[in-house]
Write a structure and sequence with these properties.
The protein folds into two domains: 171 residues, Thiolase/Chalcone synthase (Peroxisomal Thiolase, Chain A, domain 1); 143 residues, Peroxisomal Thiolase, Chain A, domain 1, CATH 3.40.47.10. The chain has ten helices and 15 strands. 52% of the residues are buried. Bound molecules: acetyl coenzyme *A. Acetyl coenzyme *A binds next to helix 2, helix 6, helix 7 and strand 14.
Length: 319
Amino acid sequence: MYSRLIGTGSYLPGPAVTNDDLARRGIDTNDEWISSRTGIKFRHLAAENQTSSDLALEASQRALAAAGRQVADLDLIIVATSTPDYIFPSTACLLQGKLGNQGATAFDVQAVCSGFVYALTIADKFIRSGSHRCALVVGAEVFSHILDWTDRGTCVLFGDGAGAVILEAADQPGLLATALHADGAHHGILSVPGSINNGQVTGDPFLRMDGQAVFKFAVRVLAEVAGECCAAAGIDASQVDWLIPHQANIRIIEATAKKLKTSMEKVVVTVDRHGNTSAASVPLALDEAIRDGRIRSGQKILLEGVGGGFTWGAVLLEY
Ligand code: ACO
């Protein structure tokens, strides 16, 4: 028993917000600084009342349509998000209610920017065990709601969005190999170190980051886990047709590609137009490259995530 990707969908809220738009909104920044350090040109931002489950719903409906499956076919719903609608119930249950599915297993995965790769790996294992047949796996985020808009070092880096895939049981792979890791010793370099206690916010409810520490960590582990995943599938990194790394920063993506000796022509890049959408970044990029025809049937795709925790991981699949 294997799992196979049979459809993708994605959704970006609102109009594109350029770097100059951010400066016009009173942030002490400029297009030259943001573009040269991150590659980001614009991003999409959700409205204040737009939640992760709202974005997830749009992406999920598009993925179901692409896969030719009905809501009732789903027996597993996993949402990767660090910006859930509520403390509980899970965003996956809220999405399930909005979709109108009854009875599927539904839960969230919290692995920040590695969340989608974590969720896809979990869905693969459910399907391969024989317990489930048709999974909806979503990465959905509204990071704009947890940004300190007075901190120019972080608020310019992120965007909102959702990406979704349908994974189904098949007798041919599908997902070829997966690898997931975490090291909680590094929790402090990227976090939202707050909580709610007795109706009050305790700690800091905004995203905080040591950008240079994140940069070094991300490049190292993205290269390592790519090698691990390819080795597990018995292929060389040069046999990968498309690399889809987490879209945090073009310099991290380029440094990772260089370490893997992969040409940037084989790397799907969306960070210029999406910013960093955390758990949504990989499925958004995957959906874009499938819909525009870059990714074709039979090709090998390596998905990679890295994020707060720190967490990191990769999924190698044949499309
Ligand atoms: N506009 C203009 N100037 C700015 C901005 C801004 N938006 N932000 C910071 N600056 C200024 C700082 O105030 C500082 O000025 P100073 O020298 O006068 O004090 C100067 O730019 C340099 O600031 P640094 O924070 O040292 O900038 P750095 O060169 O490290 O670049 C960056 C910051 C782009 C975040 C870099 O560290 C990086 O790429 N890190 C990777 C982290 C990342 O991409 N994180 C995304 C989330 S993590 C993830 O998804 C895995």
